[in-house]
Amino acid sequence: MPDPDISYIQSRRLRLVPATRPLIDADLNDNPRLARLLDARVPDNWPPDLFDGPAMQFAHRQLNDPAERGWSFWYLLGREADEAVLVGVCGFKGRPNAAGEVEIGYSILSQYRNAGYATEAVSRLVEWAFAHRHVTAVTAETLPHLAQSIRVLVKNGFQHAGPGSEHGVIRLALPRSRLN
After folding, report:
1. Is 1 inside any structural domain?
2. By CB distance 3.0 to 4.6 Å, which of 15, 36, 57, 119 could disulfide with 77?
3. How far is 34 from 43, CA to CA, in rounded Å?
């Protein structure tokens, strides 16, 4: 049974569910419980790349602050046959900074890549972020050789914005001013 306190975001093919401490607890320790809480099948190869224990632990600590709800990651539920299935995650690294910028990231299970799920999820979460008036830009960082990741961002209007915060990483950004 899904958690009744969770506010979903619906897109054409996805239901985006914001991470909560109970969901992360289940994700870290009990995939059958995670499946029940999400009312979705959790594939055997869960979690997706770059979404490992340390990332989940960070999100778990982040959600100690109720104001972080929504500014963490979101579970992405697609449809397969007649059931919901967990296909990946998309979300933010925290609330907007003092300049109003928020960083987005995403990871899709290998069997669901190249189906547009990341593009669709980024689109909906960018809309969600810009619904908050204090958000001035949504940014992302990736490695320059990850062409598919860059393509997801470019399809959503992001443009190259220089080097990232770590050596060899590039930054892309979508400022609010580009929405008008």
Report:
1. no
2. 15
3. 11
* 2 belongs to a structural domain: no
- pLDDT range class, residue 15, cuts 50, 70, 90: very high
170, β-bridge pairs: 142, 163
27 inside domain: yes
Q: Residue 55 sits in which domain range?
A: 9-179
pTM: 0.93
Sheet holding 83-92: strands in order across?
9-10, 15-18, 73-80, 83-92, 101-108, 137-142, 170-175, 159-163
* Nearest by Cα to 23 from 65, 54, 69, 67: 69
- Written as six digits, the tokens of 174 are 């979508």
The pLDDT tens digits for 68-121 are 989 999 999 999 888 999 999 999 999 999 999 999 999 999 999 999 999 999
CATH at residue 166: 3.40.630.30
Among residues 124, 138, 113, which one has the least CA distance to residue 45? 113
The answer for 117, left when phi > 0, alpha when psi is -120 to 50, beta otherwise, is: alpha
